[in-house]
């Protein structure tokens, strides 16, 4: 991609390798941080308005980036403005759907975040074709208009359930022992619980390990298994399918067996797969480890919002999960940075050990008691 930017900015392509890679770290960090503000806005003013703002910012940032003439402008328009729009548009359907279906938090969260993953699977090849035929900046202009229209249209359908609906026990189902629908925590109350910090650090570890592997999947395949560029691209596409599938699969499993048991299982599987990556030199174990890690990474994105809703209630879920989601941004950027500065095998071993720590945190995590008044 730096070749495409170099033509626009008039500088050598090799000098843009680091600045271009930083754009994607910036958008992940901005996305995660602004999810908090989007969630805080959603709880008092409703999901429709926040989603509409998100669509305007995401699309508008891409449109502005299409006119950029410096790398700094791209950082601002694409990294910050579009990243903010992503944060606003991401949290609203997630929190709203959890309020509509409080007895199925895991699978509901899974389907919502799977939608984002499917969008990536659909628009990534379209975007690549457009970049090859029209250039990256023209592609941003077109996609900015498309995303603005689609998100604004989708915002029309986001409505909160009637008052009291989230407290009703669904017909024919027993209330879960860990159900905390009547224990709605404010952000201040949540921050006074140990459960929040355990969840936060688990998400930090899971997102760091997952995004490190996903971000480096192609070069890992080429370096460790001798894959060609085309084969490596095929593996990356396959990982997207496992990522999306894991969101629905693990979300549904967590509804059946409990959040912390599933988190423990995902951390153990991720840790073992990372250690397998550190010694893999052939295609099959490499793909198996990749698939397991991305399957679990997708699961983290479904199970953590469900856990937040179950432990701290759905009334303030937008703001509460926004605080939890900051761990995704910090962990993701940290994981990608670690993968870029350490030898691959060392990075895998370090991440694998961290995931064992995440499994230990899962064993320590318990739903808090009713919140005390502020």
Mean pLDDT: 85
Reading off the top of the CATH hierarchy, the class of the largest domain is best stated as Mainly Alpha
- Structural class comes to mainly alpha
- Which of globular, elongated, flat, extended, rod-shaped describes the shape? globular
Q: Which helices and strands appear, and what pairs or packs with what?
A:
Layout: H1 2-9, H2 17-45, H3 47-65, H4 71-100, H5 105-134, H6 136-155, H7 187-190, H8 194-215, H9 217-225, H10 229-257, H11 259-279, H12 283-312, H13 317-341, H14 344-364
Helix pairs in contact: 2-3, 2-4, 2-13, 3-4, 3-6, 4-5, 4-13, 5-6, 5-10, 5-12, 8-12, 8-13, 8-14, 9-10, 10-11, 10-12, 11-12, 11-14, 12-13, 13-14
Task: Describe the protein's architecture and organization.
With 374 residues, this protein is mostly helical. It folds into 2 domains: 2-157, Growth Hormone, Chain: A (Up-down Bundle), CATH 1.20.1250.20; 179-364, MFS general substrate transporter like domains (Growth Hormone, Chain: A), CATH 1.20.1250. 79% of the residues lie in helices and 0% in strands. It is built from 14 helices and no strands. α2 (17-45) runs antiparallel to α3 and α10 (229-257) packs antiparallel against α11 (259-279). The longest helix is centred in the first third of the chain and has 30 residues, at 71-100. It is globular, with a radius of gyration of 21 Å. 47% of the residues are buried. Mean pLDDT is 85; it is low at 1-16 and 167-181.
